[in-house]
Amino acid sequence: MKSALVTGANKGIGFEVVRQLAQKGMYVYLGSRNLENGRKAVDALKAEGLNTIEAIELDVTNDESVKNARAEIGRKTKALDILINNAGIYGGYPQQALNAGIDQFKAAYDANVFGVVRVTQAFMDLLKMSPEPRIVNVSSSQGSITLHSDPSYTYYDYKGAVYLSSKSAMNMYTVVLAYELKDLNFKINAVCPGYTKTDFNGHRGPGKIEDAGKRIIRYALIDKDGPTGKFFSEENNPATGEIPW
User: Fold this and answer.
1) 90 is a catalytic site residue
2) What pTM was estimated for this model as a whole?
3) What pLDDT sits at residue 196?
């Protein structure tokens, strides 16, 4: 049975990703900053008949928490097949380049960028033990510098210096990581789930959470001939999914 770890998964898109992975017969570690919330999420999924899910306490902004999560999962399995770096924050308001506070930037980067680095580095040894390791970094088309410099982009006027720049930084980490592991069997991509109705955006997004989950799952399950080091947003490019950095 293949195994997967999803961070920030006790609710929202992460929760849906866990559900869909379990439905496909995988053993899924549901990462949650608060263990009790994670256990409640697991109970909800078990009530649906999904029994291959386990809550793991994992705060991506805390070195010790990440280390402990790695140790706990390492006691249960010798290999991790899929890592989905989903945990993230918006960063609060204001988001204007001229008046967003430095503490806002630090908090957003700690979760959205450094958190991805912490978790990826901590679990790399287990991922390398998988015959076909996959990493999906959950991004946003909002992190595309190319799109945000184009007035015809759907969300051109939805600027936010804190969140957008953190996703752009995470995207570059994705590119470099994919390059460094290009000679192994890794497939590593950044995936935008689309503007989805969740707590993250105050339930303003028009997209369905089921569709968001499917978009992420698609790149977590790609075969050996699939892409790596790419940026995908099916919302912005329904034809091929790929969008510019």
Assistant:
1) no
2) 0.95
3) 72
